[in-house]
Amino acid sequence: MNNFEQSCPVCSGSDALNKFSWGEYPVIHCNQCGLDYCSQMVEKESGGNSSPVHLEGIEMMANAFHKTNELATQYARRRINIYESILKRKCQNILEIGCGPGVFYKPYKQESIQWDGIEINSYWKDFGEKNNIPISDKPLELVEKTYDVIMAHQVIEHVEDPLAFMRSIVSRLKPGGIIHLELPNQNSLTARLRRISSKLSFDYGFIQPPMHLRAYRKQTIKHLFRQFDLYSKMVIDCGNTDGIWGQVRDYNLFQKSFYSFAGKIGLGSLLIGLAQYSGD
Ligand SMILES: [Zn+2]
Q1: How many whole angstroms from 5 Cα to the centroid of ligand 1?
Q2: For the chain, how many structural domains are there in total?
Q3: Ligand 1 centroid to residue 31 C-alpha, Å
Q4: In which residue ranges of the chain is pLDDT below 50?
Q5: How far is the CA of 199 from the centre of ligand 1 (A)?
Q6: Could you report the per-residue pLDDT of 243-262, keeping only the tens digit for each?
Q7: Residue 9, in any domain of the structure
Q8: 1 lies in some domain
């Protein structure tokens, strides 16, 4: 069993761990890869090894689904161009881990790309059945196909053991295939504001017990990629409203302005990592 009290979940380093308390809970910062984390994951998603997602977030995404189709279509078109320029071939299939409502199913279908979504939360499987979107509750470990692109948006920060998660992804990539991660950026303006004082913020940046117990920076993602046969193609931070890598959400005007400002000054809330599998 892993003991993350003694070694970092991302770089496995044990010499550079800085332990401290933030208000009511202990946090560990790894000076080697830049990960912030809590070693104990007390509450878990049923049937999984990840921390749970708030019901509010789920309902927000379900409501936004019907409003954001056009946005998802724009993102999908722009991303296909980038995926295919890396693949140097046509992208035939995509697996989305933790796909939520499956906003990318129709946009990719329109481009003749087969999209498969898996989701541990049973809410979304039912949602998929009602809306004709093929969402499966199959765990990643039981997925038998291989893919040109495997995307995981807002997932890895919930995962207790990121190295095991990455191994499962890499073994399902075709040669030359792409992993596309999107996650909260621990160096963002939002995260920095939430690290000023535990009297002002219960959250330590994007450490948000019990849902987020791992918080990543750009260098953490690079460390993660380096440990597999993955060639890092792009590790950037950007605003939630970025024209290519932004989130499919129905943001209000205040949120749009804030996110766009944070993105412009290089302190955007999203971290995007794209890497290509070099093995076979
Ligand atoms: Zn580390």
Answers
A1: 12
A2: 1
A3: 7
A4: none
A5: 27
A6: 999 988 777 888 888 888 88
A7: no
A8: no
What distance in angstroms lies between residue 104's CA and the mean position of ligand 1's atoms? 33
Q: Ligand 1 centroid to 171 CA: how many Å?
A: 23
Cross-sheet strand order for the sheet of 230-238: 135-136, 114-118, 93-97, 147-153, 173-184, 270-277, 230-238
For ligand 1, the distance from its centroid to the CA atom of residue 65, given in whole angstroms, is 36
- What does the pLDDT look like over 129-186, one tens digit per residue? 999 999 999 999 999 999 999 999 999 999 999 999 999 999 999 999 999 999 999 9
pLDDT, position 40: 78
Q: Give the model's pLDDT for residue 115.
A: 97
The SS3 assignment for 162 reads helix
Any domain includes 91: yes
Q: Do the domain assignments include residue 42?
A: yes
Its domain, for residue 32, covers 17-277
Rounded distance from Cα 223 to ligand 1 centre (Å) = 8
Query: Which letter, b or e, does each residue of 58-72 get, where b requires 16 or more Cβ atoms within 10 Å of its Cβ?
Result: beebeebbeebeebb
CATH of residue 39: 3.40.50.150
- Give the pLDDT score at 211: 81
Contact in structure between 87 and 148 (CB atoms under 8 Å) = yes
- pLDDT value of position 119: 94
3-state secondary structure of 96: strand
How remote is the CA of residue 191 from the centroid of ligand 1, in Å?
19
